[in-house]
C-alpha cells in the first residue's frame, strides 16, 4: 500500500466519529433525495406512466351475452386498428350485501351494484392489473376488489342471499386497474356460480388501438368494432380518455405540493452535506500540517482528504439508495392513491443519478477546505488547534457574558458566532425544514377544512333518498335508464314531519335545463323548504333566499365568465326564468357546472325535478338519539320501500392520501433537519472537546454541559423558526389556490386562513424543537466524555 | 492533624500496558505543599486525575476532604471540583475566546455565585496576582507566565481547600517559571494546601514542604523537606 493510501485508511479508521457522521449524513441526504426525485419524476404525467405500464385499455366494451357469442366477441380482436385485446371476460352486475367483516360495515346492508368480472389471470396483453395487496382470486368463494374506494378489506365477506344457495365471497386481494375495468374480479368458474338461473352474463372486451389520442379517434375505433358485431349487441363502451381527464385533474392538484416538498428535501440535503463535509475535512487541518511537514506534497494531501471524505460518503450513498427505495414503497403508494393511478416506482436512473450527484457534491465540498489546508503554511497548520482560533465571535461572547444568564446558557448562545458560516448554513437547513413543516401542517388543516366544506353539500343528521342511489356501473352506458319507480316526495315529507325527533328538513331534487348562452343542458339542484341551515360552504356572496336567486360553484363562474350579481336565464321548452347569482359555493362535482336555487325559481319553466333524484336532509331536535330516530323513521318508511340513513361525513380517498403523503413528507423533512443538526453538533462537540474538558475540570456538571450544548443550537433553531414560518405560510397561501385552480375551483378564504395563533406558536418553536432534539444526543455524549481523555487531546 | 487527601491501595489500569498506578498509598495533611516527582510516564498525572475525580481508580479508595471521590457520580463530582479543588495545568487550559477576567469568573459562575460577589473576588485575585491590567485581554495576547497566573487565579476563585497543579512551569521560560514558583510558595505560606506534579526539581525544592517520587506507579521516595 502506498504511503498515501495508508494515510487515507488510517484517517478513516482513526477519526471514527467524523467517519460515522459523514456516512450518516450522506445516507440521509441520498435517502431524502431519492424520495424527492422519485416523487418529482412520478408527478410528471402519472396517469400516462401507469397506463403505459399496465397496458391500459383504450376502450372497455360490454356486449349483451344473449345476442352475441364469446367467439364473435373474440373475433373483434382482429378488427383493423386494434393492436391488442383481452377478453372476452364474463361480467355480472350484482348488488352484494355486507357480510362478516372487520371494516366496521353494518352486517346485511345492501350495497350499490358492483361490476364483477370473471378473470382467470390478472395479467394479459391489455389491462395488466396491479395486485396491490393479497393474492388473485383463483378458488371458489374468493374475490379481488378494486383498491379504489373498496368498501372492504382482506378477509371481509360479501353475501348474495338473493342468489340460489346464497353464495358468499371472501376478499382475498385488492387490485388496481388503471382503466377502472371492474369493481371486483372472481375466477370464471365463480362467475358462473354467481349467475342467476336463466340469466346470461355479459361479455367484457378490452381493446388497445393504434390511434387513441383523441375522442374522435376513439369514436372511430368504436365504430369499427360496432360494425363487426350484430347490431345492438354492444351495450356500453367506456373510453380511457374520461378517466385520464379525471386522473390528470387529481394529479395536477397534487403536483404543486409534492414539488414543494421535493425541492425542500433536495436543498436541505445539499446544505447539510456542505456543512458536514467541510466541517469534517476542516477539522483535519492540523493533521494535514503534520503530513506536509513529513514531506507530502499539497496535491497528495488534497487527494488524501478528498478520498477520506469519499469513502464514508460512498458507503452512505449505497445505504441511502437502499433506504430511499424502501421508504419509497409507502410514500409512492400514497402518491399512487392520490394520483388515482397505479404502478409508481422509483425510476432506475434516479438510483444512479442521485448518489452520483451527491458524491460529486461531497468531493467538491471536501475539495475546498482540503485545498485551503493544502495551501496553508505547514507551521500554521500544525499550530491550528493549539493557538487561539481566529477571534470571531469574541465580542458577542463578551457581551453575552455580561447578560444576567446562567453561564452555560451564555456560553452556548455564543457558540454559533465562532463559526458563522456553519451556523448560517445549519440555520438555513432548519429553516427549510420549518418551511416544510409549516406548509405541511397548513396543507393538512386546509384540506380538512375543504373536506368539511365539501361535506356540507349533504347536510343533516339523517338523509332519505327517494330512490336508492345506484351509480351507472363502469363499462356501461351512463345513459342507460334506471327503471324503478321513485316514491312521491310528498309522501316522504309526511312521514318525516310525523317523526317526533324531527327539528327541520328540506329536500333537493335535480333537473337539467338550458342556460341562455350555454350549449347543452346544465344540472339544477332545486331546494324545497328552508335550506338556510344546510347551505354549502360559500367562497363568496351568500346562500340564496327565495325565488329568483341562485348559487353556483366556482367552476360555473369560471366557465361562463359570470360574476356574483349577474342574472342568468334558465330555459326549458321555449319558457324562460331569470335567476340572479348571489353566491359562489364550494363544489367540485360536474366541474362545478351546477346551479343551486329554490324550486320556486323553476315554477315558470315547468321543469320538474327527476323523482328518483329527490333527497331529504333532516336535522334532529337536540337530544334526539340518531339511532333511535333512524329505527323509528325506517319503520315508518318501510311501506314505501325506501330507507333512511345516518349522514356519515364522507372522507375522500384523495384527501386521506394527500394528508398521509403530507405527513410522511413532513416527517422526512423533520428527520433531515434533525439529523443535520445532530451531525453538526457532533462535529462542533468534537472540535470543542478540549474546551469541554476544561469546563468540566472547573466543575461544569453534566446538566450544565447539556444545557450549554443545546443552547448552542437554540439561537439557530429560533432564527430558523422565525424565518421559516412566515415563508411556509406564504408558500401555503400561494400553493393552495394553485392546487384549487388545478381542481377547477376557488377555495373559501376561511379554508386557507388556517394559521391561528395556537398553530403558529408551536410552529415558530418548531425550529427550536428540531434543533434541541437534534442536539440532545451529542449533548449527552459531551456530558459524559471522560474529562481526563478530553484534556489529553492537545 | 487530619489528612485532607487519603489514598489507599489505589491501582489504575488502562486497557493496555502495565498499571499506571500500582497499589499506591498516600496521605496529605492540610497546609502541606506536596511535590510529586518522577520520570515521564511514571503515573503522576494519573494520580492527580484520581484526586481531581477526572478519572476513577480500578481499585482502592480516594478520600479528599472527607469525600470518597472514587464513589461520586458525575453531578456530585462536578460540585466537588467546583467547591473543593482548583486545578492548574501545564498548558494553562484557558478558554481562548474568553477574556482573562471571564476565565477567572468561570468557576464562580458555574457554582452560581451571585454576580457582584464573583466579580469582586475576581478583581481581588487578579490584583493579588498582579494581572489586573490584563483583565480584559484575551489569553492569546498574554505571555506564558501571565497566562499561568490567570489559570492560578481561576483555580483559586472558589477558595478551594486543595490546589492541584500538573507541571505548572512545564511550558514556561525560566523567568516566568521562577515567577510561578514564588506565587505557589506565597500561597502555601498563607495556608493553601497544594499538590504539585512536576519533574522540575528546582520547583520541588523551592516550593514544596514534602516531596514524593513515583516510579512505575509506586512511591519510591517520600521526603519531608520543610516544616512551615
Ligand atoms: N487515558 C489513558 N489511556 C491509556 N493509557 C494512559 C492514559 N493516561 C495515561 N496512560 C498511561 O499511563 C502511564 C502513566 O501516565 P501519566 O500518569 O500521564 O504519566 P506522567 O504524568 O507521570 O508522565 C503512561 O504509561 C501512560 O501512557
Ligand atoms: Mg503528566
Automatic annotation (TrEMBL), chain A:
<dbReference type="InterPro" id="IPR003838">
    <property type="entry name" value="ABC3_permease_C"/>
</dbReference>
<feature type="transmembrane region" description="Helical">
    <location>
        <begin position="20"/>
        <end position="41"/>
    </location>
</feature>
<keyword id="KW-0812">Transmembrane</keyword>
<protein>
    <recommendedName>
        <fullName>ABC3 transporter permease C-terminal domain-containing protein</fullName>
    </recommendedName>
</protein>
<keyword id="KW-1133">Transmembrane helix</keyword>
<keyword id="KW-0472">Membrane</keyword>
<dbReference type="Pfam" id="PF02687">
    <property type="entry name" value="FtsX"/>
</dbReference>
<feature type="transmembrane region" description="Helical">
    <location>
        <begin position="305"/>
        <end position="326"/>
    </location>
</feature>
<feature type="transmembrane region" description="Helical">
    <location>
        <begin position="426"/>
        <end position="447"/>
    </location>
</feature>
<feature type="transmembrane region" description="Helical">
    <location>
        <begin position="254"/>
        <end position="284"/>
    </location>
</feature>
<feature type="transmembrane region" description="Helical">
    <location>
        <begin position="706"/>
        <end position="732"/>
    </location>
</feature>
<feature type="domain" description="ABC3 transporter permease C-terminal">
    <location>
        <begin position="260"/>
        <end position="374"/>
    </location>
</feature>
<feature type="transmembrane region" description="Helical">
    <location>
        <begin position="346"/>
        <end position="368"/>
    </location>
</feature>
<dbReference type="InterPro" id="IPR050250">
    <property type="entry name" value="Macrolide_Exporter_MacB"/>
</dbReference>
<keyword id="KW-1003">Cell membrane</keyword>
<comment type="similarity">
    <text>Belongs to the ABC-4 integral membrane protein family.</text>
</comment>
<feature type="transmembrane region" description="Helical">
    <location>
        <begin position="752"/>
        <end position="776"/>
    </location>
</feature>
<feature type="domain" description="ABC3 transporter permease C-terminal">
    <location>
        <begin position="664"/>
        <end position="774"/>
    </location>
</feature>
<feature type="transmembrane region" description="Helical">
    <location>
        <begin position="661"/>
        <end position="685"/>
    </location>
</feature>
Amino acid at each position: 500500500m502506498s504511503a498515501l493510501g495508508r494515510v487515507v485508511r488510517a484517517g478513516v479508521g482513526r477519526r471514527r466519529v467524523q467517519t460515522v457522521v459523514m456516512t450518516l449524513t450522506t445516507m440521509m441526504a441520498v435517502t431524502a433525495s431519492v424520495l424527492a426525485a422519485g416523487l418529482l419524476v412520478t408527478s410528471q404525467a402519472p396517469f400516462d406512466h401507469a397506463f403505459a405500464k399496465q397496458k391500459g385499455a383504450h376502450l372497455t366494451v360490454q356486449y349483451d351475452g344473449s345476442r352475441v357469442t364469446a367467439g364473435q366477441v373474440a373475433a373483434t380482436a382482429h378488427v383493423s386498428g386494434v393492436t391488442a385485446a383481452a377478453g372476452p371476460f364474463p361480467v355480472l352486475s350484482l348488488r352484494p350485501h355486507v357480510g362478516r367483516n372487520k371494516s366496521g360495515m353494518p352486517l346485511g346492508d345492501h350495497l350499490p351494484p358492483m361490476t364483477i368480472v370473471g378473470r382467470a389471470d390478472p395479467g394479459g396483453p391489455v389491462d395488466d392489473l396491479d395486485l396491490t395487496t393479497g393474492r388473485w382470486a383463483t378458488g371458489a368463494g374468493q374475490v379481488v376488489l378494486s383498491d379504489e374506494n373498496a368498501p372492504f378489506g382482506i378477509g371481509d365477506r360479501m353475501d348474495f342471499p338473493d342468489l340460489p344457495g346464497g353464495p358468499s365471497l371472501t376478499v382475498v386481494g385488492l387490485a388496481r386497474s388503471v382503466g377502472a375495468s371492474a369493481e371486483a374480479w372472481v375466477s370464471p368458474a365463480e362467475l358462473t356460480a354467481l349467475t342467476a338461473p336463466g340469466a346470461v352474463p355479459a361479455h367484457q372486451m378490452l381493446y388497445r388501438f393504434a390511434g387513441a389520442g383523441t375522442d374522435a379517434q376513439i369514436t372511430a375505433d368504436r365504430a369499427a368494432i360496432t360494425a363487426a358485431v350484430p347490431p345492438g349487441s354492444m351495450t356500453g363502451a367506456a373510453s380511457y380518455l374520461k378517466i385520464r381527464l379525471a386522473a390528470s385533474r387529481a394529479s395536477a392538484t397534487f403536483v404543486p405540493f409534492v414539488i414543494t416538498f421535493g425541492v425542500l428535501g433536495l436543498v436541505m440535503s445539499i446544505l447539510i452535506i456542505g456543512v458536514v463535509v467541510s466541517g469534517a475535512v476542516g477539522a483535519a487541518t492540523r493533521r494535514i500540517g503534520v503530513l506536509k511537514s513529513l514531506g507530502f506534497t499539497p496535491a497528495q494531501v488534497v487527494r488524501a482528504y478528498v478520498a477520506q471524505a469519499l469513502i464514508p460518503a460512498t458507503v452512505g450513498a449505497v445505504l441511502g439508495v437502499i433506504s430511499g427505495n424502501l421508504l419509497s414503497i409507502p410514500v409512492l403508494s400514497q402518491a399512487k392513491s392520490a394520483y388515482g393511478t397505479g404502478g409508481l416506482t422509483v425510476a432506475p436512473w434516479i438510483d444512479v443519478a442521485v448518489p452520483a450527484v451527491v458524491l460529486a457534491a461531497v468531493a467538491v465540498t471536501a475539495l475546498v477546505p482540503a485545498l485551503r489546508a493544502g495551501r496553508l503554511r505547514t507551521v500554521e497548520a500544525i499550530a491550528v488547534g493549539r493557538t487561539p482560533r481566529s477571534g470571531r465571535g469574541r465580542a458577542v461572547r463578551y457581551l453575552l457574558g455580561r447578560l444576567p444568564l446562567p453561564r452555560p446558557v451564555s456560553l452556548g448562545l455564543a457558540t454559533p458566532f465562532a463559526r458563522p458560516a456553519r451556523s448560517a448554513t445549519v440555520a438555513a437547513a432548519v429553516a427549510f425544514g420549518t418551511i416544510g413543516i409549516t406548509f405541511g401542517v397548513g396543507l393538512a388543516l386546509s384540506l380538512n377544512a375543504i373536506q368539511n366544506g365539501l361535506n356540507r353539500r349533504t347536510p343533516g343528521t339523517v338523509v332519505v333518498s327517494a330512490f336508492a342511489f345506484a351509480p351507472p356501473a363502469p363499462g356501461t352506458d351512463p345513459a342507460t335508464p334506471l327503471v324503478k319507480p321513485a316514491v312521491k316526495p310528498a309522501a316522504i315529507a309526511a312521514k318525516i314531519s310525523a317523526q317526533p325527533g324531527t327539528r327541520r328538513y328540506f329536500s333537493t331534487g335535480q333537473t337539467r335545463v338550458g342556460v341562455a348562452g350555454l350549449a347543452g343542458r346544465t344540472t339544477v339542484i332545486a331546494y324545497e323548504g328552508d335550506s338556510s341551515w344546510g347551505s354549502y360552504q360559500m367562497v363568496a356572496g351568500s346562500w340564496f333566499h327565495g325565488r329568483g336567486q341562485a348559487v353556483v360553484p366556482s367552476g360555473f363562474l369560471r366557465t361562463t365568465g359570470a360574476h356574483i350579481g349577474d342574472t342568468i336565464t334558465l330555459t326549458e321548452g321555449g319558457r324562460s326564468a331569470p335567476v340572479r347569482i348571489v353566491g359562489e359555493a364550494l363544489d367540485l362535482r360536474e366541474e362545478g357546472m351546477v346551479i343551486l336555487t329554490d324550486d320556486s325559481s323553476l315554477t315558470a319553466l315547468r321543469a320538474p325535478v327527476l323523482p328518483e333524484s329527490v333527497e331529504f336532509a333532516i336535522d334532529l331536535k337536540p337530544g334526539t338519539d340518531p339511532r333511535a330516530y333512524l329505527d323509528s323513521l325506517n319503520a315508518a318508511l318501510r311501506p314505501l320501500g325506501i330507507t333512511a340513513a345516518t349522514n356519515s361525513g364522507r372522507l375522500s380517498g384523495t384527501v386521506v392520501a394527500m394528508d398521509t403523503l403530507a405527513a410522511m413528507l413532513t416527517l422526512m423533512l423533520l428527520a433531515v433537519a434533525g439529523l443535520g443538526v445532530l451531525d453538526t453538533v457532533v462535529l462542533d462537540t468534537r472540535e470543542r472537546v478540549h474546551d469541554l474538558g476544561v469546563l468540566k475540570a472547573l466543575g461544569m456538571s453534566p446538566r450544565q454541559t447539556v444545557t450549554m450544548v443545546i443552547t448552542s443550537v437554540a439561537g439557530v433553531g429560533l432564527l430558523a423558526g422565525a424565518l421559516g414560518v412566515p415563508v411556509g405560510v406564504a408558500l401555503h397561501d400561494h400553493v393552495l389556490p394553485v392546487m384549487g385552480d388545478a381542481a377547477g375551483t376557488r377555495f373559501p378564504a376561511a379554508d386557507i386562513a388556517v394559521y391561528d395563533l395556537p398553530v403558529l406558536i408551536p410552529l415558530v418553536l418548531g425550529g427550536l424543537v428540531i434543533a434541541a432534539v437534534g442536539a440532545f444526543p451529542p449533548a449527552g455524549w459531551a456530558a459524559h466524555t471522560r474529562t481526563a481523555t478530553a484534556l489529553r487531546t492537545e | 492533624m487530619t489528612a485532607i487527601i487519603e489514598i489507599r491501595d489505589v491501582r489504575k489500569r488502562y486497557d493496555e500496558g502495565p498499571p499506571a498506578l500500582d497499589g499506591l498509598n498516600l496521605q496529605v495533611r492540610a497546609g502541606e505543599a506536596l511535590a510529586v516527582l518522577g520520570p515521564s510516564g511514571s503515573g503522576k498525572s494519573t494520580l492527580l486525575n484520581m484526586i481531581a475525580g477526572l478519572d476513577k481508580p480500578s481499585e482502592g479508595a480516594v478520600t479528599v476532604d472527607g469525600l470518597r471521590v472514587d464513589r461520586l457520580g458525575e453531578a456530585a463530582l462536578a460540585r466537588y471540583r467546583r467547591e473543593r479543588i482548583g486545578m492548574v495545568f501545564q498548558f494553562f487550559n484557558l478558554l481562548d475566546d474568553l477574556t482573562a477576567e471571564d476565565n477567572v469568573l468561570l468557576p464562580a459562575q458555574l457554582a452560581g455565585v451571585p454576580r457582584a460577589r464573583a466579580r469582586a473576588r475576581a478583581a481581588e485575585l487578579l490584583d493579588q496576582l498582579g494581572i489586573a491590567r490584563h483583565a480584559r485581554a484575551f489569553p492569546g495576547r498574554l505571555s506564558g507566565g501571565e497566562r499561568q497566573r490567570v489559570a492560578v487565579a481561576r483555580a483559586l476563585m472558589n477558595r478551594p481547600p486543595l490546589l492541584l497543579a500538573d507541571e505548572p512551569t512545564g511550558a514556561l521560560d525560566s523567568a516566568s517559571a521562577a515567577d510561578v514558583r514564588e506565587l505557589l510558595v506565597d500561597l502555601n505560606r498563607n495556608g493553601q494546601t497544594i499538590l504539585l506534579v512536576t519533574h522540575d526539581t528546582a520547583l520541588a525544592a523551592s516550593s514544596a514542604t514534602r516531596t514524593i517520587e513515583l516510579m512505575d506507579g509506586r512511591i519510591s521516595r517520600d521526603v519531608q523537606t520543610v516544616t512551615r
